[in-house]
Amino acid sequence: MKLKSVYSSQKDFYGKANVIVEGGQTKLKSYSTIVAVKEGNKVKVKGWYSKTTAIHINEFLLQNGGKKLNKKEMELEPIINL
């Protein structure tokens, strides 16, 4: 399903960001790449890709009770406790 823009100033992500639910995981796919995976109360961010993908990741984090990350934080590929 499409990631909806709730917290972002963007009106819509135009199908470029999608949420995939598989088993016990919820994955964020930005363009053609899985960039974040939520399992239980943790989200694994898989790095920094681009400014647009960072907007998608931050929207996903905020919608799941997390906080925004900056580029340096995303580059560390963090596991975030929600």
Keywords for this structure?
82 residues, alpha+beta, five-stranded antiparallel sheet, globular
Would you write up a description of this structure?
There is one protein chain. By secondary structure, this protein is an alpha+beta fold. The chain has one domain. The chain is built from 2 helices and 5 strands, in the order E-E-E-E-H-H-E. The protein has helices at residues 51-63, 71-75, and strands spanning 17-22, 25-30, 33-39, 42-45, 79-81. It has a 5-stranded antiparallel sheet with strand order 1-2-3-4-5, with helices on one face.
Strand order of the largest sheet: 1-2-3-4-5
Unreliable stretches (pLDDT < 50, length at least 5) are none
Describe the main β-sheet briefly. 5 strands, antiparallel
Distance between the termini: 22 Å
> Helix amount, in percent?
10-25%
**What would the principal axes of the Cα set say about the shape?**
globular
Extended strand count: 5
Along the chain, the helix and strand elements come as: EEEEHHE
Summed up:
The protein is α+β, with helices and mostly antiparallel strands. Helix content is 22%, strand content 32%. The chain has one domain.
Secondary structure topology:
Elements: E1 17-22, E2 25-30, E3 33-39, E4 42-45, H1 51-63, H2 71-75, E5 79-81
Antiparallel strand pairs: 1-2, 2-3, 3-4, 4-5
